[in-house]
Amino acid sequence: MAISIPFFGKSVELQRNARVNRAATVSKPEAVDGIVMFQKGNKAKVCWGPGNQTVEAVRDLTLIVE
User: Fold this and answer.
1) Which of 38, 44, 39, 48 is nearest to 60 (CA)?
2) Could you read off the pLDDT of 9-43 as tens digits, one per residue?
């Protein structure tokens, strides 16, 4: 069973290969089961599947804990 932990704008250091979700916003649809490639400041590069990588604000991500 996996548990999602939202960051609510906290400054968080994401580990490489951490699993994350992104909640839907006005400008972006929901994205699930992403893998963090790296983090620089408050931005993280996330792989959402084969060939689909985006740069996300860390505050918009939810860590998946198993």
Assistant:
1) 44
2) 556 788 999 999 998 888 889 999 999 999 998 89
